Amino acid sequence: EDALNLPSGPYEIPLMIQDRKFGVDGSLLYPPPQDGTHPMWMQEFFGDTICVNGKAAPFLEVEPRKYRFRLVNASNSRFYHLTLLPADAKGKPTGAPADAPPFRQVGSDGGLLPAPLQSHYLIFSPGERFDLVIDFSEHKGENFALLNDAPAPYARGGEIVPKDVMLFKVTKLLAGKDTSSLPDALSPWAPLNPTHAVRERILALTEMDRPSDGYTLIGLLGQRHWDDPITEDPKAGSTEIWSFANATGDVHPIHLHLVQFQVLNRQPFDVKSYIETGKLNFAGMPMPPESNERPAWKDTVKTYAGYVTRVIARFDLPVGAATSPGQEFRYVWHCHVLEHEDNEMMRPYKIVA
Q: C or N terminus of the chain, fewer CB within 10 Å?
């Protein structure tokens, strides 16, 4: 990676994005749910203020040059639809995303992409990471607002949507010539072959709602609780396809520990029939992954309501792990919405040596 000469040092900056609520004294506030089922648990938490690296709607002064930003969505439940727009010094937009420097994505959850991917927006679920280069070199003296307009819950809406994420001010003097680069090729990538998969697991994502008002009582993975017997048991070194059948009304970011996977496709299915019979009846043809999902190594994937989302992974144990035949190693997979994984949307799985 160092040989690629991407922006580094003071020009490589982590951005941890979280929405939060604050009490009148400035303390963090996690309000008890209205008419909830538990004094502290709610279906999802949505704050009215977006914080970056612990600061509420901050600004960052940058030089007119390339910067590398490593983003992580560390919010409890909020998805983001991020755009960068020209703005005045107070962050009020004065133009369109096409008038701002584009996002040039160089990496995802599992590391570098094979080549940079250019876009003017990002859809960002809890637990996902984006590795970006933004070039401010032609924008000396200008300001750019990073804004959010994703519905909450995603994508149904109904909850508050704070828009201000942060402001970039291209006001610092150039400390020296920008010698960093953004190469056309970044890292080799080879697709995993679905024909090499020893099995496909169909894994249901379901919720039980309160009949009176639809309030979610509990969410389940594979129709099982956390402490039910383990049912996912890949053989070490084997390749499997995991197909997440989302029968809920939410988009769940599903995260697998240990492995990096590749997204294969998404396919709509008849949810009502699946809930009643347990059989998948597809309602359309498979759809290709989103543009920044393949080719890419991922460990968190957005599973859309009413779709089967298929990923493929090779379940290798860590390099150098001492094993004996039949030995079991336990990991977890879960929804990355914090309130969901805390209310049964987390399951153990085991790798068998």
A: N
